[in-house]
Amino acid sequence: MSVDGWNTVLVLGGIRSGKSEFAESLVTDAPVVRYVATAPEGDPEDTEWATRLAAHRARRPGSWTTEETTEDPRRLADVLESAEPNEMVLVDDLGGWVTVLLDPDHQPADDVATIAELAEAIRGCAARVVLVSPEVGLSLVPTTPLGRAFTDALGAANRAVADACDAVVLVVAGQPVWLKPGATATAPAALATATAPTAAAAPVVASLADAEPTPEVQLPDVLTHTAPAVPAQEQGNPWAAPTMALPMVATGLVIQPGMELPMPDEYAGPQAVDRLATLDVPGAGLGVLDRVVGFAAATQGTSIPAAWGSVRVLLLHGDHAGGASAGTVAGESARRAAQARAGRGALARLAAESGASLQVVDTPASGPIEDEPALAPEQVESALRYGWRLAEQAADAGVQLLVLGACGAGTEAAAAAVLAATAGAEPPAVLGRVITESGEIDDAAWMIRCAAVRDALHRTRRSSRGAKDILAELGGGDVAVATGVLLGATARRVPVLLDGPVGLAAGMVSRDLAGQARHWCLLADHGGHPAVRLAADVLGLTPLLDLRLDLGEGANALVALPLLRSVLALSAALPVHPSLGGTDDTDPTTDEPESTDPSYTEPSYADPDLTEPDFVEPEPAGPGPASTGADEQPASGWRAG
Question: What is each CA distance from 153 to 115, 143, 166, 178, in whole angstroms?
């Protein structure tokens, strides 16, 4: 495979920076890998160096072939020139190659000419190449002639190879920073241009669809709506929409199977649930909602989790062509997205009531899956990185919980196709009924959707079932962006509240890319949707509620959000029961602090101005003229009938 369309990559880094591990991660999916070892064996008595070489060898899969160029540094160019197009060549590293090049056994030699030959071989190489090299130009100038000769030769080699390669990445403390190509080339190819909004300008939403790449690409605006104080019918539309946009930068992100992302705290969750049993509550506790406390504790890394304060809703808008969208009204999803941007509709109003920000994201339009792939492979890569950036933007803004929803024609059928490909489900079993605008069941449209999914599965029966292949063939733009959001949120330790088929389909796909992602997801309600039920069962996500809400993806979760927040706030505020060592709330000696006012004195009824209230003996109840008026009521408060 090529790396984001690049065939040759130079990976730079300092000592123990993780450059070799990163370079190896770029070639893990390649079917044929030739590992070119350049470092000499060294002194047999140098056990530390021998240990390093053994560690490098131990990391290589048994399917890789290894070649050594220590005998003749010019042989590296020959290896690259003879490589086949179906191969991936990993050269580790150029520092060892330069060491051999400067060895007295290979002198006299024209170092400049040999480096130029290597650069020319890289440019003409038919295979895909990843080269590793140490970056020594940031250190002090060596004090010995041999040290200066090495740094000069390595610097010249790095410059020549970097110029010949399509991409260059610098690994610092295990973090890759991409140096080449620049922002223009690394920005997602399908992202749209968005200019910085002004105070009077309408919200501008960056789109992934039908636009040319530009040097500065912005993510969609974050909308913060204010709930109306009085009904909108009485005062028009009072909702404001201040915006914020974060420009897309070249992160050099490579999303690939088997990524090692963080897991929630495995101890904090059980500790938080155990603590609930000690709280001073009159009943049995929170019931099934104790899972909310355990989830929040694990994702926050504390046994006393706080209620989520900053919440952001991501509404993914993208249509699917063909039979997947049968039974939907043309333009309806665009109307819903525009409605949310304007602060109207169920989703925007619920977000305003919850104090949540809203981000409407336009995703690539997906082709008819029964006839052709939903997306091109490069669009999948762009959509995944775009979703990751959305999650990063939220994390940088201090968002503590993401709510993931979608609106688009054909999303349910696309999710059903993903489930059929990843979980072996039958399309009719995971496709919900088609309901028309008038509330009637459209069986004809449902059958067309089933046929589209069936034909898509038949078309791709011999295709790979890898995560990116499923997104390209069946999932489409909204599922691909949603998958990127889940991965990015996992990387930044931000929990995600799922709602609807698109989010659950993304959860199924994300398993192959990073299995940790599902542990950062929470499902409030299944909404009665069969695809959500099945995917939740496979992912191990038990719905917290059974409200069967159908207000649209995202809106269902926002209905449950106040309840979830209340549960977290209550669990954090309640004390431990007195029998278990807690404080008794009714004990005035512990709960009523003494006054700090020096002029305050405890009132005494011996004071002539203060008299102890008289105790009045109640009159015995019974027959007789005890009532003095028709309006007088008995002490119990009940009126005689």
Answer: 9, 16, 22, 23
